[in-house]
Write a structure and sequence with these properties.
Elements (H helix, E strand, L loop, with lengths): L3 E7 L7 E6 L3 H8 L9 E8 L2 H11 L11 E2 L3 H8 L5 E2 L1 H9 L6 H9 L17 E4 L6 E4 L5 E3 L2 E3 L1 H9 L12 E3 L2 E2 H9 L4
Antiparallel strand pairs: 1-2, 1-3, 2-4, 3-5, 6-7, 6-10, 7-8, 8-9, 10-11
Helix pairs in contact: 3-6
């Protein structure tokens, strides 16, 4: 058993696709390897954490998201990053995301402008504040009509003193740690599903 890093990567040129992998080396070297001549833009780090046994954790993720794996010989999955992050946070020893995001931004500085332009042309990730849901607002879990959480910032909620993504909280409430969960489809604000509010906010972006 070796301690290492398990990461969740995205790529602006591959919308809707997530790469889940591991490394025991510097993440910068791994990101440079992935940025081959066949990849138009560098990968970006959505989340990365140090874990006790990176090989075991990686295998568990590949099995959990097996039905969504695009190619059995590649580590790419047709899921939302939040679905993988919600599970990986449960095994985290040390959040490495900020440091690895900085390393990722240095892989090809000149390509960043192209990546930013491409991302602006697509709908952004869910942000409660942009959707008109203020910090402290109460969200209702549609699973039982009684469980609630509160918005802590643009991307996370607070539940029983813990701050986390809505997808992680949904996975815990549904007791399905091995299955991908897209949280916004299970919560509402003022009687409206978060999914519907998202479409209303971002649906017309070109």
């Amino acid at each position: 058993m070796t301690e290492g890093i398990v990461y969740v990567l995205t790529n602006p040129a591959m919308p809707g696709i997530v790469k889940i992998g591991k490394t025991t080396r510097g993440m910068g070297a791994r990101l440079n390897e992935l940025y081959s001549t066949g990849v138009p833009l560098p990968f970006e780090c959505a989340y990365a954490t140090r874990v006790d046994d990176e090989s075991k954790v990686e295998r568990a993720f590949h099995q959990a998201f097996g039905p969504y794996r695009i190619n059995p010989r590649r580590e790419f999955f047709d899921i939302e990053p939040e679905q993988a992050i919600a599970l990986l946070e449960l095994m985290a020893l040390e959040d490495m995301t900020p440091a690895l995001q900085e390393e990722a931004s240095q892989v090809d500085v000149e390509a960043k402008a192209g990546a930013d332009k491409l991302k602006r042309s697509r709908r952004p990730p869910l942000n409660y504040l942009e959707m008109g849901i203020p910090v402290g607002a109460t969200l209702l879990y549609e699973g039982d009509g009684e469980t609630v959480c509160t918005v802590s910032d643009g991307r996370r909620v607070e539940y029983q003193g813990q701050t986390m993504s809505i997808s992680k909280l949904t996975a815990e409430l549904r007791n399905t740690p091995g299955r991908p969960i897209r949280g916004p489809g299970h919560w509402s604000y003022n009687g409206r599903l978060l999914d519907d509010l998202y479409e209303e906010t971002y649906g017309q972006i070109d």
